[in-house]
Each structure stands twice: as structure tokens, then as C-alpha cells.
Amino acid sequence: MASITIRNLVKNYGGVTVIPGLDLEIADEEFIVLVGPSGCGKSTLLRVLAGLEAIDGGELMIGDRRVNEVPAAKRDIAMVFQDYALYPHMTVRQNMAFALEMRGAESAEIASKIEEAARLLDIQPYLDRRPKALSGGQRQRVAMGRAIVRDPQVFLFDEPLSNLDAKLRGQVRAEIKMLSKKLKTTMVFVTHDQIEAMTMADRIVVMKAGVIQQVGTPEQVYENPANLFVASFIGSPSMNFLPVDIQADGLRLADGSLLPESLIARPSGDHGKLTLGIRPEHFELVQEGQGLAADIELVEPLGSDTLVHVSAAGQEVIVRVSPDLRPKAGQRIWLSPAAGKAHLFDPETEIRIDGTGKAD
Amino acid sequence: MAMKPSDSRWLDWINVVLLVLAGMIVMTPTAWMILSSFKPSYEVIAFPPKLVFTPVIENYVTLSKQTPFLSYGINSLIVTFGSTVFGLLLGAPAAFVASWTRITWPAVVALMARMAPGTLFLLPWYVMFRQVDMIGSYWALILTHAVITLPIVIWVLLPYFDNIPRSIFEAAQVDGCSPFRIFRRIALPLVSSGLAVSAILAFVFSWNFFLFSLVLSNSQTKTLIAASFNFIGEGSTNWGGLMAAATIIALPPLILAAIVQRWLISGLTLGAVKG
């Protein structure tokens, strides 16, 4: 168990800089999720932490130890790979024993650690099978078991759920979360799935083009996104963005409708045109003639709630409503942002602006 | 455009005919050699050739009486086995490193060395081995035959190593393995069928190689294939003896190929179907 400190970390591939200088502090026993779209540098960062990629600049500390030049084999970290990377010619037991054998552990110690991990992960019946005789979910468990037996300082997960079907993914997600509470080890988990990030993380690190966009608890990132990218990436469906003009009497939308100031903390200073961000569940249906006129184009019933695609202020907007409302395509409804739930962003810097007129 | 069933049947027939033709081209000399080894010498070159004849074993009897064929066979085994082991010991790590680092130019150089005519190496080697008084030694033959076996081992094993997901090696690194241990504990067991294929091919190519043994061996270390040259005299050639010798020489590779043909084919096509 150890903290991780990353100071001004730089990673280049050939002449291309994929991480231009990154700072991050991960506390001991913390569950951190690195999230972002493909190519954002999250897996590269994980591989740098693992020692599978060299560091081109900056400093990486695991606990009190600087590990820039320490090879993967000596970092005392365990990693669960996207394709599980189990050794195909070894049984589950041998897979789990391998790292301990490399460390020179006694066979009695190896056997007891394997038994303990197998019980924790419920894989005792498969210990003498080869990986090819296991299902995807079982392999995933074995990969975790292989990591657990080592009792490492840090666990690294590289999109370990992406090869599982949706149902199993949800189940394993919960299991990993529970496991992290039991093991009390620092965990760094990489995913492009914002639901995984939201449900598992103590803190989320949102990345884009090798740069951290925001670090915060799932609630902070969801409720107060730092910029347009975070606002659009976190949340499904994505936040709706509408261009607005700040006027003396409120926020005027592209279709001329006016949103009252009371709904949104008016930014101080001279801003002019801004981008209004509203999550689909943060719209309220209001009486005809009030708020924003919206024509329903498509209705997607999800069971627990219903997604309504509407045309409003000249663009497509998605609204989440109760299924009891039973909206119909072609119908006109009137929408207003829930009080205090809408956000304003500077369209040029893309940074969120709070009521003081400053970026958060 | 979808193919009609009748078109498909025609293509099947064309395939069969082409395969039979190819088989005849490949097998006719072998069949000729084996049949001729059971004919008296004068019948071997008779024209038109006799397909129906009374088989005799005099060529094999003469061969065993007149030449130390067994010791030549042992020499062949020592040289072939030695050069195959040598090729595997150097070629398997070389292929692993080439695959790991994705630096394949040394493998290309090795292949070019294999494609170059043997005479290119022969003269410098002859001079070098003479200077160190190694002409006629097994070591000279084993080392020179490694030029045959090493590129085969590298080129057969390279796609096998490439086929192993990189994450498996990375998992081993994270598990505390040194590169050598990754090679020995993870990579080698995963390419065991490739090792068998490369060993068989290296064995066969080394067994059949004539030139180096002809020049670099002496009467004590002469291999079977070089010894068979003795049947070709200046004035006359003992065709029956030559055919009997050729049949015996060809047997080990033929038997090996027959035993492992399924393995061999899947091994050789691995690179082609790599996803």
C-alpha cells in the first residue's frame, strides 16, 4: 500500500508528445479512475506507472521511492490487463503462483495465498484448469487473483471489463469495488466508460490529449464539470449545450426565448455570448408559453425513465423525463432548466464560469 | 458475385488435377530412385525404362560391403544433430529478441545469408578452418551447417513469437520476470510446436546439404550425402549403388516429414494466417 506522486511527467512516442507534463497525487488506499476517450493518454499513463513504458521527463514516486528508472519487475505493482494476459500454458493455480515463485516465496506460503485469493474470488473449482477452459468472467477473476496473491503496493487495471458482456460487467464492477474496500490497496483503474468511472472511483481523473481536465469525486465531476469537455464526456446521454446571449433581462437563446435570471447564477463581468449546459435530467416541464418551446422528434423509453429528443432553440436537445408522462413524437412541450442546475461555459476557453464570472 | 454450385464443382476438379500433377512432378523422381535401387545397374539407365522387373537387393548388399555406410550415417547424424541444436540454441533467442524489439533486420540478414550460394562461404571458411587446423573435424561441419539451420529456426519461430499477445510478456514483466526468464518460462513453452517444426526443417536441410561436407570433411567425418558422391566415377557411374545410397539418405527426412506432416503444415502456414 502506497501513495503515488506524479510530477511534471512527460511521455513521448518518437517525436510525438502524448503526455506533455502531468501532475497528480494519488493517496494511499485510494481508488482512482483514469477516464477519457481513446488516445487521451490514460493507458499510456498506466503503463508508465507499471514501468512498461519509459519516462521522458518529470518524476514518478511510489510511496517514498522514486521509480523513474526502476523496471516493472521491481516496482511491486500488480496489473490486470484488458485481455487478462493469463499464461495459456499454465493452470489457474500456476498462473497465480508464478509471481510468488519469481519472488522466491516458500511453497507453503504460495499455496495458502492462492487458497485465500481463490476463496475471495470464488474460483476454487477452476484452480487446476487452463485459461482456455474458462469463460471470460472466470478469466477476469483469475487475472484479479493473480494480482491479489502478490499483495502489491499498487493495483493497476487496464480496462479489465471491456471484454465482458453488459450484465457481467455490472456484476464484476461491483465486485472490484467491494474488493478494493476489503484489500485497502491503492488502485488505479483505466476505462473509457464513464459509468465505470462514476460507480467505482473515489476520485475520477478526466483526461484529454494527455492533459488532465479535472480531478474530483464522481459527484464533483458530474455536478461541477471544469469545462465543456468534462461536461460532455461525463454523463450519458451527454449534457446539452445551447448558445446564449447574456442580456440585462436574462439569458436569450438562439430562437429568441428568454430564460429568467433566477434559474441561473448570472455571471458578473461582461461576457456576451456564452454556452449554456444542461443535463437531460435537469430540465423541467413548464406550462405552455413559458421557458423554451421544444418539438418532440423521438421518444426512447428505457423503462426506468424516458429519453425525449426534441428540437429546441434551433438544435437537438435530449431530455430525461418520467415514463409516466408518455410523451409522443410530434407533440410540443415547454422546458425550463431546474433552478441552479444549469452551467455556463466560455465558448472560447471552454472553461465553466461560476456566478463570479471566473472559471472554477 | 456468388458462385454457382456447378462452378464450384469445376473448381474442385481443377484443384484435384493440379494437385495430382504437382504430386507427380514431386514424387516421380523419388519413385524412380526407389525403384531403380532395386534394379541391376545396367537396367537403371535402360531405355525405354522397365516398369515391370524382378527386384534385386544386390545394390544394398554391395553398398553395405564396399562402403562404411553406417559410420557415414553416424557422421551425418552427428553433424545434423549438432547443427540443429546449435541453430536452435542461437536461433530461438534471436527470433524472440527480434519479435520482442520488433527489430527484424538481423533476421533478414540471416535469411540473406541462407539464400546466398554456399560457395560464397566455402572458400573463406576453408582458409579459416585450415589455419586453425579444423578441416575434417565435426566442429567445422557443425558450425558451417549452422548457416543452414540458423536462418530456418529464426524464420520459422519469428511468427510464432509474434503471435503471442504482447500483454502476456508484459504481465510476466510485472510479475517480476527478467527478459531471460520470460523467454524460458513463458515464450519457449508457448512456441513448442514451432520449435518442433523448426527443428525438423533444420534437421532435414542440414541432412541434405552436400557442399560443405564434400570440402570440409575427411574420410573419418564424411557424411552420407558426400559419401554417395563416391559412386560417380570418372569413367563410369554405379547407378544402382548410387540409387540405393540415395534411397537410404532420403529415408530419414521422408519418414520425419510423414510423421509430422500435419504439424509441419500448420506450423508453416502460421505466419500466413496471423491476424
UniProtKB/TrEMBL annotation, chain A:
<dbReference type="GO" id="GO:0055052">
    <property type="term" value="C:ATP-binding cassette (ABC) transporter complex, substrate-binding subunit-containing"/>
</dbReference>
<feature type="domain" description="ABC transporter">
    <location>
        <begin position="4"/>
        <end position="234"/>
    </location>
</feature>
<dbReference type="Pfam" id="PF00005">
    <property type="entry name" value="ABC_tran"/>
</dbReference>
<dbReference type="GO" id="GO:0140359">
    <property type="term" value="F:ABC-type transporter activity"/>
</dbReference>
<keyword id="KW-0067">ATP-binding</keyword>
<dbReference type="InterPro" id="IPR008995">
    <property type="entry name" value="Mo/tungstate-bd_C_term_dom"/>
</dbReference>
<dbReference type="Pfam" id="PF08402">
    <property type="entry name" value="TOBE_2"/>
</dbReference>
<comment type="similarity">
    <text>Belongs to the ABC transporter superfamily.</text>
</comment>
<dbReference type="InterPro" id="IPR015855">
    <property type="entry name" value="ABC_transpr_MalK-like"/>
</dbReference>
<dbReference type="InterPro" id="IPR003439">
    <property type="entry name" value="ABC_transporter-like_ATP-bd"/>
</dbReference>
<dbReference type="InterPro" id="IPR027417">
    <property type="entry name" value="P-loop_NTPase"/>
</dbReference>
<dbReference type="GO" id="GO:0005524">
    <property type="term" value="F:ATP binding"/>
</dbReference>
<dbReference type="InterPro" id="IPR013611">
    <property type="entry name" value="Transp-assoc_OB_typ2"/>
</dbReference>
<dbReference type="GO" id="GO:0008643">
    <property type="term" value="P:carbohydrate transport"/>
</dbReference>
<dbReference type="InterPro" id="IPR012340">
    <property type="entry name" value="NA-bd_OB-fold"/>
</dbReference>
<keyword id="KW-0547">Nucleotide-binding</keyword>
<dbReference type="InterPro" id="IPR017871">
    <property type="entry name" value="ABC_transporter-like_CS"/>
</dbReference>
<dbReference type="InterPro" id="IPR047641">
    <property type="entry name" value="ABC_transpr_MalK/UgpC-like"/>
</dbReference>
<dbReference type="InterPro" id="IPR003593">
    <property type="entry name" value="AAA+_ATPase"/>
</dbReference>
<dbReference type="GO" id="GO:0016887">
    <property type="term" value="F:ATP hydrolysis activity"/>
</dbReference>
<protein>
    <submittedName>
        <fullName>sn-glycerol-3-phosphate ABC transporter ATP-binding protein UgpC</fullName>
    </submittedName>
</protein>
<keyword id="KW-0813">Transport</keyword>
Automatic annotation (TrEMBL), chain B:
<keyword id="KW-0813">Transport</keyword>
<dbReference type="InterPro" id="IPR035906">
    <property type="entry name" value="MetI-like_sf"/>
</dbReference>
<dbReference type="InterPro" id="IPR000515">
    <property type="entry name" value="MetI-like"/>
</dbReference>
<feature type="transmembrane region" description="Helical">
    <location>
        <begin position="69"/>
        <end position="91"/>
    </location>
</feature>
<feature type="transmembrane region" description="Helical">
    <location>
        <begin position="138"/>
        <end position="158"/>
    </location>
</feature>
<feature type="transmembrane region" description="Helical">
    <location>
        <begin position="186"/>
        <end position="210"/>
    </location>
</feature>
<keyword id="KW-0472">Membrane</keyword>
<feature type="domain" description="ABC transmembrane type-1">
    <location>
        <begin position="73"/>
        <end position="260"/>
    </location>
</feature>
<dbReference type="Pfam" id="PF00528">
    <property type="entry name" value="BPD_transp_1"/>
</dbReference>
<keyword id="KW-1003">Cell membrane</keyword>
<protein>
    <submittedName>
        <fullName>Carbohydrate ABC transporter permease</fullName>
    </submittedName>
</protein>
<feature type="transmembrane region" description="Helical">
    <location>
        <begin position="239"/>
        <end position="260"/>
    </location>
</feature>
<keyword id="KW-0812">Transmembrane</keyword>
<keyword id="KW-1133">Transmembrane helix</keyword>
<comment type="similarity">
    <text>Belongs to the binding-protein-dependent transport system permease family.</text>
</comment>
<feature type="transmembrane region" description="Helical">
    <location>
        <begin position="103"/>
        <end position="126"/>
    </location>
</feature>
<dbReference type="InterPro" id="IPR050901">
    <property type="entry name" value="BP-dep_ABC_trans_perm"/>
</dbReference>
<dbReference type="GO" id="GO:0055085">
    <property type="term" value="P:transmembrane transport"/>
</dbReference>
<feature type="transmembrane region" description="Helical">
    <location>
        <begin position="12"/>
        <end position="35"/>
    </location>
</feature>
<dbReference type="GO" id="GO:0005886">
    <property type="term" value="C:plasma membrane"/>
</dbReference>
